[in-house]
Design goal:
This protein has 251 residues and is mainly β. It has a single domain, classed as Beta Barrel (Lipocalin). It is built from 3 helices and 13 strands, in the order H-H-E-E-H-E-E-E-E-E-E-E-E-E-E-E.
Length: 251
């Protein structure tokens, strides 16, 4: 069913702009950008019927991060675009949650997020403007361990696969002859499969130093609303948000 939804949406996108494909060079173009995502976490989680709230900025949890890694990759041939963004965090926190028990507790989590999409690039209404319209999926793996002082430990592993529709404008801030500075955000919405809804807000600026090196600076916010269909005692409403800085290669 998921494959049918994604396939039908992609066919509709590609069919909407057949003339655009003929207007673009057929040479492959690539970008790989490792980046640091200085994210905080906020939301509510219910694990086996026990509900806690969490609201921590990056400065509150940076020393709790055991391992983290993020990368953005894109390949383009003609008007066809392939896009990937992946993130992994392993958090080990102390006294992270509030509202659990009078004695508090601890919330530990490993989070893996992969977004994969394919679509087309269309021209904007002004020179040097382009818009990428993509359809794909967000794959999320969460391993949560909730320890409530005086009540014990509760564990839950969650695997989510959700369709997502993405729009990625690329708008020059100044003419390219003057500057390589572009506004290059990513906006996405989806869900309705394993999650009730998901979204992606990623405004950012890209500066192209030369043909090979580009800098990305911006802000990223990723959101989920999840309800376990087989167990109403497991729910999650989570937002990850923070500054993003990456230095990558283009060719």
């Amino acid at each position: 069913m998921k494959a049918k939804i994604l396939g039908s949406t992609l066919v509709a996108i590609l069919a909407a702009s057949p003339a655009a494909f003929a207007a673009k060079t057929e040479n492959w173009q690539f970008e790989i950008t490792p980046y640091a995502w200085m994210t905080g976490m906020e939301g509510e989680a219910t694990v086996n019927g026990k509900t806690v709230e969490f609201d921590k900025k990056f400065s509150d949890i940076v020393d709790k991060v055991d391992l983290a890694g993020s990368v953005l990759a894109e390949a383009q041939k003609g008007r066809m675009v392939f896009w990937l963004q992946t993130d992994y965090f392993a958090l080990s926190t102390k006294e992270f949650v509030t509202g659990a028990t009078p004695n508090g507790g601890k919330f530990e989590s490993t989070i893996g997020i992969q977004e994969l999409a394919v679509g087309t690039q269309v021209d904007g209404w002004m020179p040097e403007q382009t818009f990428e319209i993509l359809v794909g999926a967000r794959l999320t793996q969460l391993n949560n361990t909730l320890t409530l002082n005086g009540m014990g430990q509760f564990k839950k592993k969650i695997s989510l696969t959700d369709p997502i529709l993405l729009v990625r404008p690329s708008l020059p801030i100044l003419p390219s002859k003057i500057s390589g500075l572009r506004f290059n955000p990513t906006l996405g919405i989806g869900g309705g499969s394993d999650s009730k809804y998901i979204y992606e807000l990623q405004p950012q600026v890209q500066y192209q130093f030369n043909d090979r090196v580009a800098l990305r600076v911006g802000y990223r916010r990723v959101g989920y609303k999840f309800e376990d269909k087989n167990n109403v005692e497991n729910q999650m409403n989570m937002r990850l948000a923070g500054l993003l800085v990456g230095l990558g290669m283009t060719w």
